[in-house]
C-alpha cells in the first residue's frame, strides 16, 4: 500500500491546491474532523480546489496524514 499523505511542508503561494481526503477522520481528534469539514471535505475520495493562502495552508498542515495535496496548473 502506497503512502500518499502530505508532509507538513505546504507553503503559501499563488498556486491553486487540489486537496483530496485519503483517510477517514473517524477516531481522530475533534479539531482534525473540524479542519476537514472547514476545507470542504466530506468523505474519502472527495476533492476540493483551494487557493494556497495562509488559512488553507495552515489547515492542510494540521491534517497532512488525512489528505493528499497536489498543485494545479492554472493555464
TrEMBL record:
<comment type="similarity">
    <text>Belongs to the universal ribosomal protein uL30 family.</text>
</comment>
<dbReference type="GO" id="GO:0022625">
    <property type="term" value="C:cytosolic large ribosomal subunit"/>
</dbReference>
<keyword id="KW-0689">Ribosomal protein</keyword>
<dbReference type="GO" id="GO:0003735">
    <property type="term" value="F:structural constituent of ribosome"/>
</dbReference>
<dbReference type="Pfam" id="PF00327">
    <property type="entry name" value="Ribosomal_L30"/>
</dbReference>
<dbReference type="GO" id="GO:0006412">
    <property type="term" value="P:translation"/>
</dbReference>
<protein>
    <recommendedName>
        <fullName>Large ribosomal subunit protein uL30</fullName>
    </recommendedName>
</protein>
<keyword id="KW-0687">Ribonucleoprotein</keyword>
<comment type="subunit">
    <text>Part of the 50S ribosomal subunit.</text>
</comment>
<dbReference type="InterPro" id="IPR005996">
    <property type="entry name" value="Ribosomal_uL30_bac-type"/>
</dbReference>
<dbReference type="InterPro" id="IPR036919">
    <property type="entry name" value="Ribo_uL30_ferredoxin-like_sf"/>
</dbReference>
<dbReference type="InterPro" id="IPR016082">
    <property type="entry name" value="Ribosomal_uL30_ferredoxin-like"/>
</dbReference>
<feature type="domain" description="Large ribosomal subunit protein uL30-like ferredoxin-like fold">
    <location>
        <begin position="18"/>
        <end position="67"/>
    </location>
</feature>
<dbReference type="InterPro" id="IPR018038">
    <property type="entry name" value="Ribosomal_uL30_CS"/>
</dbReference>
Amino acid at each position: 500500500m502506497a503512502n500518499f499523505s502530505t508532509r507538513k511542508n505546504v507553503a503559501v503561494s499563488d498556486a491553486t491546491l487540489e486537496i483530496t481526503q485519503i483517510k477517514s477522520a473517524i477516531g481522530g481528534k475533534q479539531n482534525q474532523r473540524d479542519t476537514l469539514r472547514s476545507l470542504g471535505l466530506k468523505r474519502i475520495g472527495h476533492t476540493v480546489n483551494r487557493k494556497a493562502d495562509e488559512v488553507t495552508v495552515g489547515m492542510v498542515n494540521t491534517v497532512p496524514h488525512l489528505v493528499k495535496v497536489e498543485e494545479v496548473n492554472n493555464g
